[in-house]
């Protein structure tokens, strides 16, 4: 503890407490307050209630689900049997591992490429910087189209390869511009002094720029990771082998098309396992990583979104 | 290191106007040229080669996957045969040219016009029903004075944005599908179940509702930032002049939001022909193409499913060209209205 001289020991107000209103602002009416609270609560419940049902049903026993006549709203005892079956090897386990790996490798690759490019373009006045930026920006105005892209990826021999899930969507120009906007805000003096001390650009990026940009790096990492985790279309387009499919594609089969997971069909038919609980468990597996990670990055969203991106 | 001693024209780096790269011209541009002119190209290359090297991987990927495929649009003018060779490019070189035949066929195809109509209806619905919600929610959240409540409701509202479309549609299936919560409730009270997920007549509202559930909360972020940048002095001055709550919103808050609203409208109109490809593709089979076919799924169906690549590419090209025109036109209108648009002049 360092000695605090000029600060009297005031108790910090609870974060739940209201910030005092400015004197000129009129007191809100009771009806207005109630109305606002109601709308806000309804909006949040509208998001949480469906998720609640999914989670609760996924941990319910077959008996509870039958009694409820389908989805369960009020939990009656918790059983993890659906998860145990899904994660004990087999189709869903494999798909989950594939998704995790593609997300990890893809995010790492995308971040490396994007951070390098963003830094390379963040020093105003560097050679060709204006042209390269134009080249980036122009891609936001057109798209080559699904068919030509498909033909290209196929011609490159990426069909039935995980590279097809990573390379075509590895670079997001939007994300690069956000990173670049942030890097440009770092003081030029700091970078110049490092240069005078003999640091090269790679070292400046690694030891000065990146540590100062943790917030935006966290946001962009989340954006890329969510992108890879959520992707299913490229897999459906470029992968033919059902055993290579990531979690989202398996979820389409199991939940949307209501197929039984490979190997668990018998257990569901004989009533040992609830097909519905299994479906909901797959959904929880898909939403859990995102729901756990994104709130941590939340406080950086505004900062990350506003530097650079909005300014174009 | 020789290049490390040459500063990158610091005068420029410190000029605030030059921070926005697209904006150039006038006195700044002239000064820049003067400064650049002092260094030879070779010297500048030596100084900046590491920076150029850093941009290389991203630039190569963009050239490969965003620029190179543009050339592939020539199949729109071919009777492209995917079975000539395993390699798409080889097939392209061996396919016969048919001029504008594909386009002719498209304009006579009622399925295409159906897709156009569905796309436009969906775009309008989303504009009217979706667009105002984030603005209203942002005003609401902005008026919440308890930080914890604010952070919590933001966290909840942002969350669905990070869910995949597969998951969002699966969630809606549990609510509105034939075995969903709504049907369960109806059956318990003696009514027939209801499967909204496969009903073509309400499909466009369903799609809009899904979009709102997923992304309306995320849309708040931009407006919240704009609201945070309004000086409290303005509100105070307005209050001193006798403006009440609503007049302050009308005369202070809304003008502050106007540029953001204009920018987002421009972006949305420029993207009018893209109305949620993955989302609709996932539900196309359940609802049928009559109600669910949009331009993007039309391209997918004809190309990927029917292997009629020339035809599909032609449809995609029409969409791409019209979209480009729309973006540019929307920007022009924004500029004429005195707003900034996506890029600067």
From TrEMBL, chain A:
Membrane topology: Multi-pass membrane protein
Keywords of this entry: Cell membrane, Membrane, Transmembrane, Transmembrane helix, Transport
Residues that span the membrane, as ranges: 37-56, 96-119, 131-150, 162-183, 204-229, 276-297
Keyword set includes Thylakoid: no
Alphabetical list of InterPro entries matching this protein: MetI-like, MetI-like_sf
Source organism, top-level taxon: Bacteria
Subcellular location: Cell membrane
UniProt xrefs under SUPFAM superfamilies: MetI-like (SSF161098)
Domain ABC transmembrane type-1 as annotated: residue spans: 96-291
Signal peptide: none
Gene3D superfamilies: MetI-like
Pfam families in the cross-refs: BPD_transp_1
Family: Belongs to the binding-protein-dependent transport system permease family.
PANTHER family (UniProt xref): ABC TRANSPORTER PERMEASE PROTEIN MG189-RELATED-RELATED, POLYGALACTURONAN_RHAMNOGALACTURONAN TRANSPORT SYSTEM PERMEASE PROTEIN YTCP
Record protein name field: Carbohydrate ABC transporter permease
UniProtKB/TrEMBL annotation, chain B:
Protein family according to the UniProt entry: Belongs to the binding-protein-dependent transport system permease family.
Record's bilayer topology term: Multi-pass membrane protein
UniProt protein name: ABC transporter permease subunit
Span of domain ABC transmembrane type-1: 116-330
Transmembrane segments: 50-70, 120-141, 162-182, 216-235, 256-277, 309-330
Keyword Magnesium listed: no
Entry-linked Pfam families: BPD_transp_1
Keywords: Cell membrane, Membrane, Transmembrane, Transmembrane helix, Transport
Region (Disordered): 1-31
Main location: membrane
Location of the protein in the cell: Cell membrane
Biased composition (Basic and acidic residues): 9-18
First and last residue of the signal peptide: none
UniProt organism field: Streptomyces spinosisporus
């Amino acid at each position: 503890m360092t000695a605090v001289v000029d600060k009297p020991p005031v108790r910090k107000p609870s974060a739940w407490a209201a910030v005092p209103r400015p004197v000129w602002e009129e007191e809100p009416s009771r009806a207005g307050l109630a109305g606002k609270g109601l709308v806000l609560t309804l909006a949040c419940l509208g998001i949480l209630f469906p998720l609640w049902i999914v989670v609760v049903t996924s941990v319910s026993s077959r008996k509870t689900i039958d009694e409820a006549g389908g989805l369960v709203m009020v939990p009656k005892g918790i059983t993890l049997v659906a998860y145990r079956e899904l994660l004990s090897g087999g189709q869903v386990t494999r798909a989950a591992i594939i998704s995790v790996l593609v997300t990890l490798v893809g995010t790492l690759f995308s971040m490396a490429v994007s951070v390098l490019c963003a830094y390379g373009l963040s020093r105003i006045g560097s050679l060709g910087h204006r042209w390269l930026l134009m080249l980036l920006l122009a891609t936001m105005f057109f798209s080559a189209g699904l068919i030509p892209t498909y033909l290209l990826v196929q011609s490159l021999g990426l069909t039935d390869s995980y590279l097809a899930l990573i390379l075509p969507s590895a670079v997001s120009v939007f994300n690069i511009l956000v990173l670049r906007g942030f890097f440009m805000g770092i003081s030029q003096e700091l970078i110049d002094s490092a240069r005078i001390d003999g640091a090269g650009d790679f070292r400046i990026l690694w030891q000065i720029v990146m540590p100062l940009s943790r917030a935006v790096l966290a946001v962009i990492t989340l954006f890329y990771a969510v992108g890879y985790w959520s992707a299913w279309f490229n897999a459906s387009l470029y992968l033919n082998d059902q055993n290579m499919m990531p979690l989202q594609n398996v979820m389409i089969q199991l939940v949307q098309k209501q197929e039984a997971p490979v190997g668990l069909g018998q257990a569901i038919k004989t009533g040992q396992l609830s097909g519905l609980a299994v479906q909901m468990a797959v959904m929880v597996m898909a939403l859990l990583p995102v729901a756990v990670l994104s709130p941590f990055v939340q406080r950086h969203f505004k900062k990350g979104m506003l530097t650079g991106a909005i300014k174009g | 290191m020789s290049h490390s001693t040459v500063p990158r024209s610091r005068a420029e780096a410190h000029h605030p106007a030059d921070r926005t790269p697209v904006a150039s011209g006038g006195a700044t541009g002239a000064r820049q040229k003067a400064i650049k002119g002092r260094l030879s190209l070779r010297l500048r290359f030596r100084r900046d080669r590491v920076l150029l090297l850093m941009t290389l991987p991203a630039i190569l990927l963009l050239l490969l996957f965003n620029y190179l495929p543009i050339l592939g649009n020539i199949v729109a003018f071919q009777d492209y045969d995917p079975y000539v060779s395993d390699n798409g490019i080889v097939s392209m070189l061996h396919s016969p040219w048919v001029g504008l035949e594909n386009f002719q066929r498209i304009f006579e195809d009622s399925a295409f016009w159906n897709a156009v109509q569905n796309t436009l209806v969906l775009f309008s619905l989303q504009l009217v029903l979706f667009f105002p919600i984030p603005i209203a929610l942002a005003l609401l959240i902005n008026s919440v004075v308890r930080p914890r409540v604010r952070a919590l409701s933001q966290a909840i509202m942002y969350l669905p944005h990070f869910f995949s479309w597969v998951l969002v549609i699966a969630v809606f299936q549990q609510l509105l599908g034939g075995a969903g919560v709504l049907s369960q409730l109806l059956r318990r009270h003696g009514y027939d179940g209801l499967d909204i997920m496969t009903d073509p007549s309400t499909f466009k509202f369903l799609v809009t509702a899904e979009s709102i559930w997923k992304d309306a909360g995320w849309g708040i972020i931009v407006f919240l930032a704009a609201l945070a940048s309004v000086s409290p002095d303005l509100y105070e001055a307005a209050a001193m002049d006798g403006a009440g709550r609503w007049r302050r919103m009308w005369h202070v808050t809304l003008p502050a939001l106007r540029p953001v609203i204009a920018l987002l409208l421009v972006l949305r109109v420029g993207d009018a022909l893209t109305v949620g490809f993955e989302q609709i593709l996932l539900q196309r089979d359940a609802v049928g193409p009559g109600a669910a076919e949009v331009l993007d799924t039309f391209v997918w169906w004809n190309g990927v499913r029917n292997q009629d690549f020339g035809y599909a590419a032609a449809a995609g090209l029409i969409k791409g060209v019209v979209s480009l025109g729309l973006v540019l036109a929307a920007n022009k209108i924004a500029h004429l209205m005195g707003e900034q648009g996506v890029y600067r002049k």
